[in-house]
Amino acid sequence: MEEPKTGLVLGYNGAHPFSKVKLTDRASVQELLRTLLDPLEPFFSPQKARVKCPGGTAVRFDQAASEVEGILRPIWGLAALLAGGGEYRGTEWWIQGIKSGTDPENPEYWGFPRDNDQRMVEMCPLGFSLAVAPTIWENLSEKERVNVENWLGNSINEKKWASTPTISTFNADKAV
């Protein structure tokens, strides 16, 4: 059977893997989410706090913030997968990444956001994941929870989008 012509090649022979998943029910959406998450595995940093995808990012912020984006943007999908009753073999990668990234003593610490810092935007998916996927919060020690709370709580200032700190702190409060 010939692969469908989608125009989505991106280094794959034939159709892009995402286009091969037919979305018909919850299980198929969960499979699509796994298909989105799996390719990130080789790009996790040693402590799992960052994901550095190859190639140029075309972003206007620092490389560290780009790598924080690399781990936290996909957590929207992971959290939805877990919240919907799905399982993912790499869930521990993200949990370890949250532990490492929010620990100021870890060499892969994400750093506190500054004014107009991209890290503030990445707080939304972290807050969302804590709110809808209890397994993430439950796998943090008390010290690690304090680190997460400190990292999220240090973002609020008047110069960033009003919704970003509101969404991230609302979701984090729901998790606790």
Q: What tags apply to this protein structure?
A:
DUF2264_N, 176 residues, DUF2264 domain-containing protein, mainly alpha, disordered N terminus, 8 helices, single chain, UCP014753
Give an overview in words.
The chain has one domain. 32% of the residues are buried. The model is unreliable at 3-9 (pLDDT under 50). It has helices at residues 26-37, 63-72, 75-83, 91-101, 118-132, 134-138, 142-153, 163-175. It is globular, with a radius of gyration of 17 Å. The protein is 49% helix and 0% strand. The protein is built from eight helices and no strands. It has 176 residues and is mainly alpha-helical. The protein starts with 25 loop residues before the first helix and ends with a helix.
Binned strand content: under 5%
String of helices and strands: HHHHHHHH
| Helical fraction | 40-55%
Low-confidence stretches: 3-9
- Structural class by helix and strand composition: mainly alpha
Arithmetic mean of pLDDT: 82
Q: Taking Cα atoms only, what radius of gyration do you get, to the nearest Å?
A: 17 Å
Largest sheet: none
Assembly type of the chains comes to single chain
User: What is the CA–CA distance across the termini?
Assistant: 51 Å
Number of domains: 1
